[in-house]
């Protein structure tokens, strides 16, 4: 039974990891497959011994923070059912050993306990177990009983219990409280899509992104190690495929541009920014080659542009300032001008005038 339970859980975990790649978007075949196996897991007959020895309960709790809400809700339901089984069997075992002569019954809405006081038994159904006060002596007995039960549950159960005074409360996972801020689990390996061309692109991207951890300084090591290169590689390849289709034909050069910059040994800056999310996967397809260049290369390009602009200004005609010309647009007399011989040598030169105020241009001979 234990082996079958573990195998069933492994199927759930594999399908959940595949469904988590695309975040919390629309439903997918992986999500449906995960929900089907979770339903089988919910119906699987389990007991206290199997849950404690297999430790599947602890591993299943990770899915209660899954990005997909349906998986998260169903996993929480399964965990809650297993918690009830653990508490029920623990309390029954204690009761069978004759602890204070108390009787404990399990209710479907939650764990309940009954306390005998002055020869009368009082029980109350609620989300938590509450022991009624009857007498000072009985109170002491009940407190000892609940503390012992709590100690056993905490040490032996794969689930956490909480004791508030004389109340045993089962922790219920809130399916919608921490989902927005919870990050998806890291992928242990690359996820393939069974397309040889697309899978090759994913492999090359993942190989390049895995190098970032060995290229950054110590102050960025923790931040880089917290990122998932396999997930980022899948997301980048998916974004390129959704926008350009297959990497063939006219789209081949667009794929090559991004792949070259991510794999370039001299472009560690771009590779690091992609992994850290400074360039989100869906925006990478809109980047220009200049934006993908390394910081050092961008500085070099800026110097080249400045030098080219300076040289172009040197080749322009020398202009002089004057107030002898009046602009026909703004009626100002602040102008610059230069003259060029545009006709034969015996003809007068052509004068080009520019208004300093409104940039209006005109010429005359």
What are the main properties of this structure?
elongated, 11% strand, 14 helices, 49% helix, 365 residues, single chain, three-stranded antiparallel beta sheet, 3 domains, alpha+beta
Structural write-up:
The termini are far apart. Helix 1 packs antiparallel against helix 2, helix 2 runs parallel beside helix 5 and helix 7 (196-209) crosses helix 9. This protein has 3 domains: 2-170, no CATH class; 196-306, no CATH class; 320-364, Single Sheet (N-terminal domain of TfIIb), CATH 2.20.25. It has a 4-stranded antiparallel β-sheet, with no helix packed on it. 49% of the residues lie in helices and 11% in strands. With 365 residues, the protein is an alpha+beta fold. Keywords: DNA-binding, Metal-binding, Nucleus, Transcription, Transcription regulation, Zinc, Zinc-finger. This is Transcription elongation factor. Residues 197-320 form the TFIIS central domain.
Helices and strands, with pairings:
Layout: H1 2-19, H2 29-43, H3 48-54, H4 56-60, H5 69-96, E1 106-107, E2 110-111, E3 114-117, E4 120-123, E5 129-130, H6 136-156, E6 161-164, E7 167-170, H7 196-209, H8 221-225, H9 229-244, H10 252-263, H11 268-276, H12 281-284, H13 289-292, H14 295-314, E8 320-322, E9 335-340, E10 350-355, E11 361-364
Antiparallel strand pairs: 1-2, 3-4, 5-7, 6-7, 8-9, 9-10, 10-11
Shape: elongated
Number of domains: 3
Q: Could you tell me the strand content as a percent range? A: 5-15%
SS elements, strand count: 11
Which strand order do you get reading across the main beta sheet? 8-9-10-11
What's the rounded overall pLDDT mean? 74
Which sequence of SSEs, written as H and E, runs from N to C?
HHHHHEEEEEHEEHHHHHHHHEEEE
End-to-end CA span: 103 Å
The biggest sheet, with number of strands, parallel, antiparallel or mixed sense and barrel status, is:
4 strands, antiparallel
Count of helical regions? 14
The value of Rg in angstroms is 36 Å
pLDDT < 50 stretches: 99-137, 152-181
The helix fraction, in percent, is 40-55%
Structural class: alpha+beta
């Amino acid at each position: 039974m234990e082996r079958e339970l573990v195998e069933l859980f492994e199927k759930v975990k594999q399908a959940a990891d595949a469904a988590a790649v695309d975040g919390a978007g629309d439903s997918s075949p992986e999500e449906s497959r995960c929900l089907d196996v979770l339903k089988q897991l919910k119906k699987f007959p389990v007991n206290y011994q199997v849950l404690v020895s297999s430790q599947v309960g602890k591993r299943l709790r990770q899915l209660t923070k899954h990005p997909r809400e349906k998986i998260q809700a169903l996993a929480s339901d399964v965990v809650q059912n297993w918690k009830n089984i653990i508490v029920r069997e623990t309390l029954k075992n204690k009761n069978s050993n004759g602890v204070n002569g108390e009787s404990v019954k399990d209710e479907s809405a939650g764990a309940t306990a009954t306390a005998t006081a002055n020869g009368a038994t009082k029980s109350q159904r609620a989300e938590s177990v509450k022991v009624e006060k009857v007498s000072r002596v009985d109170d002491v007995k009940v407190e000892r009983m609940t503390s012992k039960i709590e100690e056993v549950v905490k040490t032996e159960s794969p689930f956490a219990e909480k004791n508030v005074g004389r109340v045993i409360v089962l922790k219920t996972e809130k399916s919608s409280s921490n989902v927005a801020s919870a990050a998806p689990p890291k992928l242990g390996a690359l996820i393939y899509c069974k397309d040889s061309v697309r899978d090759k692109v994913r492999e090359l991207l993942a190989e390049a992104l895995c190098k970032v951890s060995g290229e950054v300084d110590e102050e960025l090591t923790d931040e880089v190690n917290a990122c998932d290169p396999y997930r980022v590689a899948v997301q980048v390849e998916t974004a390129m495929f959704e926008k350009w289709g297959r990497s063939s034909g006219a789209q081949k050069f667009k794929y090559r541009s991004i792949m070259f910059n991510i794999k370039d040994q001299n472009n560690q800056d771009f590779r690091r920014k992609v992994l850290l999310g400074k360039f989100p996967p869906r925006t990478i397809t809109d980047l220009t080659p200049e934006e993908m260049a390394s910081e050092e290369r961008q500085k070099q390009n800026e110097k080249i542009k400045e030098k080219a602009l300076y040289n172009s200004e040197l080749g322009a005609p020398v202009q002089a300032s004057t107030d002898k010309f009046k602009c026909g647009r703004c009626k100002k007399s602040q102008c610059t001008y230069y003259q060029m011989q545009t006709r034969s040598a015996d003809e007068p030169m052509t004068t080009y005038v520019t208004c300093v105020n409104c940039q209006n241009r005109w010429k005359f001979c």
